[in-house]
Amino acid sequence: MKVLIIDDEEDTRSIASMSLGLLGGHDVVEAGSGQEGIERAAAEKPDVILLDLLMPGMDGAETLTNLRKNPDTTKIPVIFLTVKGMFSEFDQLKELGALAVLNKPFDPTLLSGQIFEILKAKGNRA
Length: 126
Prior knowledge:
This protein has one domain (2-121): 3-Layer(aba) Sandwich (Rossmann fold). It has five helices and five strands; from the N terminus they run E-H-E-H-E-H-E-H-E-H. The chain has helices at 10-23, 34-44, 60-69, 90-96, 111-121; strands spanning 2-6, 27-31, 48-52, 78-83, 98-104. The chain has a five-stranded parallel β-sheet with strand order 2-1-3-4-5, sandwiched between helices. Helix 2 runs parallel beside helix 3 (60-69).
């Protein structure tokens, strides 16, 4: 499975990338901003996107909105990563097409399994 991680925090991207790549055996692509993430998603066609909600410039909600406007990325499943307590926006994010929200900090040993379970529960291939 190919996973695109869009997060402005390099540490978060590195930990998630190592977790998914080394522990989960997934192909991982990274982007440090919403705009870069949109471009990487169109070029790489990942199976799922992990998207940070709080980013400077284009935040996660705006990034998801733009992903949904592009025919090449409109159907890619998106799971948000955000700090605890930011769930007030989740209904809006679901309306935009998000599958779920995972908390930061996340457990690197569980991340791959969590993504797989979310995709399976929502009827997406994993």
